[in-house]
Design a protein that fits this description.
The chain has 160 residues and is mainly beta. It has a single domain, classed as Beta Barrel (OB fold (Dihydrolipoamide Acetyltransferase, E2P)). Helix content is 14%, strand content 44%. It contains 4 helices and 11 strands; from the N terminus they run E-E-E-E-E-H-E-E-E-E-H-E-E-H-H. The strands form 2 sheets. A 6-stranded mixed β-sheet has the order 8-1-2-11-10-9. The chain has a 5-stranded mixed β-sheet with strand order 3-6-7-5-4. The longest helix is centred in the last third of the chain and has 11 residues. The two termini are 30 Å apart.
Length: 160
């Protein structure tokens, strides 16, 4: 992403909320966005796995991004969505509080993570910070949201 910071280059980003925070992922990584549906819990699943859903005959794991990012959990309501994405050749659902918009943003408006933050927290999953008129969002590297060990545990849970 940051290597794409050429003048005039735009990307499309799906913006979603976890609590009061906004995050984004590139639209080319998103398969679809679905309304909240029944999630079947799996015994002894890692805490970040909310469970599994049946998406047109395919059983996919649903991860709770708020738990994964150590953010406060929200109650599920009519705005809750599951963002279905591809992560390391796995189709995964990401449980989010809402998906308010899809937008185009200039690559020039994506800044690297400030070094002060990089030195203090795990930023492996942060591609950059998007700047909108009056707000910021964290652009995620989907391939890094789950560690290789977490992907393996997720695959074991779902039975892929």
């Amino acid at each position: 992403m940051l290597e794409d910071r050429t003048a005039g280059k735009e990307i499309q980003v799906v913006i979603f909320r976890l609590g009061r925070e906004e995050f984004g992922v590139r639209i080319d990584q998103v398969k679809e966005i679905i309304e909240m549906t029944h999630i079947t819990r799996m015994p002894k699943a890692p805490s970040f796995i909310e469970g599994v859903i049946n998406l047109r005959g395919q059983v996919i794991a649903v991860i709770d991004l708020a738990k994964q990012f150590d953010l406060p959990a929200s109650e599920h309501d009519e705005e809750t969505r599951i963002v279905v994405v591809d992560v390391d050749d796995n189709t995964v659902g990401m449980l989010v509080d809402s998906v308010p918009e899809v937008l185009r943003i200039s690559a020039e408006d994506i800044d690297p993570t400030p070094s002060l933050i990089e030195n203090r927290i795990d930023t492996r999953y942060i591609e950059g910070i998007g700047k909108l008129e009056d707000r910021l969002f964290v652009l995620l590297k989907l391939g890094k949201v789950l560690s290789p060990e977490e992907v393996e545990r997720m695959e074991e849970t779902v039975g892929d």
